[in-house]
Amino acid sequence: MSPEIWDYVSSRFATLEEKVDNLTVLVETKKAEVSALERLLQQAMRIIRRTNRRLVAVHEAPEEIPRELIPYSIE
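User: That's the sequence. What structure does it adopt?
Assistant: Structure tokens below.
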């Protein structure tokens, strides 16, 4: 392989490796963000359920649980 072609191919590989590294960092960052958000949603669901149990205990109507939070119920 000629040096020119090798230089071109090498630079392309280097560029692709850099892009893959950047994407890997982005994916890992987003995974951490999603995990943190899921923990917050689970925490919100626990708070709502606890509050609703207290409301029922004092004969009050429980608050409606938002549909978006139901998948994060751990109970």
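Helices lie at 3-57.
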